[in-house]
Amino acid sequence: MAQKFFALLKSRGIVQTFFKISIDALVIGLAYIIAYSLRFDLSIPANNFLLFKHTLGMAVIIELLFINILGVNQSQWQFTSIQDIINLFLALLVGWIGFIIYLYFGNLLSVPRSVLFFFLILSFIFTGAVRFVPRIMFKMQSRLASNKKRVAVIGAGKAGEMIIRQMKNDPSLGFYPLALIDDSPKKQNTKIHGVKVLGTTSNLKKIVAQKHIDEIIIATPSASAGQMRRIVQLCEQTGIDFKTVPGPKEIVNGLVQVQQIRDVKVEDLLDRAPIEIDYKEIRQYLEEKTILVTGAAGSIGSELVLQLLSLNPHKVICLDRSENSLFYLDNDLKQNHSEDAYQIIVADILDLHKMDHLLSTLKPDIVFHAAAYKHVPLMEFHPEEAVRNNILGTAYLVQLAEKHDVNKFVLISTDKAVNPTSIMGATKRVAELVLQSYSAQSNMKLVTVRFGNVLASYGSVIPLFQKQIASGGPITITHPEMKRFFMTIPEAVKLIFQATRMSNGNDIFVLDMGEPIKILDIAYRLIKLSGLRPEKDISIKYIGLRPGEKLFEELWNNDEVPLKTAHPKIMKAIGSHYNNWDRMESHLKEYEEFIQTHDIPAIYNKLHEMIPEFSGQFKKQLEKKTTIIHNIGMES
To answer: How far apart are CA 260 and CA 173, in angstroms?
Structure first.
């Protein structure tokens, strides 16, 4: 006990702990004096006074001992909570029992029982009071602060309670909660930490005006996208700043922190339910494995790396040829992870000698192949590079992985591989066929995971729109009816892991992307979230379909049938499989020859031969490329 007591002194600071102990000693001693005085009507007889003097010191010492041993004084008094008071009472009760035991063994049981009863009650009242005084003073100081934001919180649930409690307990946060808003009739006129529910979201504008609110906090993490859109629209009508707490996907351990309050993002307004996966099962599958991620510095690759590191693998190998992007990835990883947990490698998957050496040395158990050229219009003008990287790079890597006993190879594919109209989509479709054909004669498990656009990836539509808004517009959209499937990057990676775990090889899994969303709707939402008005502050300019683009993307080829799996968000593509590796090797050799001879028409013809549904046209793209080069020459 003594060791714990002195450890507490050291950990909490001698001065602060001594002050608390001194105050407790004074009020406990006062409680004992008053208890005796009440028993004898303020006039203690001589024989009882001697007993009082003999027991006073031990009464105080025993109570103090248990208050500090049980950790009651570890709490800061200005933040005293109901739980702290409960803990205080339990410590005093244990000390009180200890005092009675002392009286028993000391033959001092002549102390009146009423004195003992009064002593316990008064000790609790006095020690509780000295803890609440700093809290009351702290709250008064907080209330008088004039430089705080006057805040209204939407949501009188668990998240709203956490946010208000933190704002009230810590004045340095700079918030002063004045109003709660909730649509539940049962919560009207109730209070949370002294803040009253003043109305529903329909009354938001009126409440903001009456209370002179500076900022609105949306504390409804479980709200659907439709509900969030309505709340955001009402917030926009007030004309003041509004922010939100993170959603269920971002909240750790169910706790919401004021520091997590952020601007509303466009993905908060998209109609997508949270993705649930079996983390325990996936952790058991991936832990202690060596995992190679190609394209590790890209949008999908970097998220793969981040989530993998949280699943306790032996090592994550982060491979990319972009040394600049790898530098920033390394800097980010160093903040939260041991350098033994991952390895940064600058390498090109097309460098066969180096890749052979790396796989031989590092011996990965699983390969996540995310490296690819993905920009549709750009690849239309560089088809040989798309073929080299997306097709040949995949084929080379698959064969090296087999050579060095990789257990599972996962290809990250795209919805643009379905009935492709672009070079990028066609090359990714051939990459899928490479895995299918190689799987027929391989012991390695080969898996393809196909999905659509991911929000906020490098070069995707949302960062582009945000940049255009920041520069004053216009936002450029190819067509008013263009739609795309969208998914957040963390969601996609979660489902990639789930698909990897459930696959036994030679599978194409397609992620449920929900309903396609109009690009125009996303543009409007982004403009509004920036506090601006579509078509007034920021104009929309339609520029026509770019080379290789489609109005609508698809997830299933004509010969594929979706089959349900154990996970509701993952489907399996069942259809005719391309299973002739000898024939595939012949195609690959032809691609190598065409690249060496810069025979672009032959590349197009070969893609059409392998993918009859491919609708890309070399002549059309060549004409566009010639026009662009001509225009550049004229401008210069």
So the answer is: 12
| Gap between the Cα atoms of 155 and 175, Å rounded | 17
445-451 and 315-320 strand pairing:
unpaired
In terms of Cβ atoms closer than 10 Å to its own Cβ (0-12, 13-18, 19+), residue 259 is exposed
Predicted TM-score (pTM) of the model is 0.61
> What's the sign of the alpha-carbon dihedral 78, 82, 88, 91?
negative
Instruction: Report whether 333 contacts 310 (CB < 8 A).
Output: no
Q: Where are the domains of the chain?
A: 2-141, 147-264, 279-626
Is 416 an annotated catalytic residue?
A: yes
Q: Check: CB of residue 282 under 8 Å from CB of residue 501.
A: yes
Residues facing residue 414 across a β-bridge: 451
Q: What is the token pair recorded at 378?
A: 């750009």
pLDDT score recorded for residue 634: 36
Exposed (0-12), middle (13-18) or buried (19+): which is 40, by Cβ within 10 Å? middle
CA distance 613 to 603: 15
Does the fold of domain 279-626 match that of domain 147-264?
yes
Calculate the CA 222 to chain-centre distance.
Answer: 14
DSSP state of 40: T
Instruction: Check residue 636 and give its pLDDT.
Output: 32
Q: What is the pLDDT of residue 143?
A: 55
Task: Give 10-residue mean pLDDT values along the chain (636 residues).
Answer: 46 66 87 84 74 83 86 71 84 88 80 85 87 71 62 88 83 83 90 89 90 87 77 86 67 50 62 67 91 94 92 94 93 89 95 96 96 90 95 97 95 90 93 92 91 62 78 83 73 88 86 74 77 81 71 67 81 76 94 94 93 74 46 36
Closest by CA position to 316, among listed 277, 370, 278: 370
Side-chain-side CA neighbours of residue 588 (13 Å): 22
String of b and e for 102-137 (b: at least 16 CB within 10 Å)? ebeeeeeeebeeebbebbbebbbebbbeebeeebee
Name the phi and psi angles at 447, rounded to 5.
Answer: -130, 135
φ, ψ at 275 (rounded to 5°)? -85, 130
**SS3 category, 189:** coil
13: left (phi over 0), alpha (psi -120 to 50) or beta: left
SS3 of 86, please?
helix
Among the listed residues 187, 265, 315, 416, the single catalytic one is 416
Picking from 122, 160, 167, 121, the residue whose alpha carbon sits closest to that of residue 27 is 122
The amino acid that residue 50 corresponds to is L
243 in Cβ contact with 461 (< 8 Å): no
CATH topology of domain 147-264: Rossmann fold (3.40.50)
279-626 CATH fold: Rossmann fold (3.40.50)
Between CA 256 and CA 334 the distance in angstroms is: 25
Would you say how long the chain is, in residues?
A: 636
> Quick check: 364 and 342 in contact, CB under 8 A?
no
Nearest alpha carbon to residue 307 among 496, 458, 446: 496
Q: Which strand (E) or helix (H) includes residue 586?
A: helix 581-596
Peptide bond into 420 cis (omega under 30): no
* Residue 347 pLDDT: 96
Distance CA 372, CA 417 (A): 13
Cα 185 from Cα 183, distance rounded (Å): 6
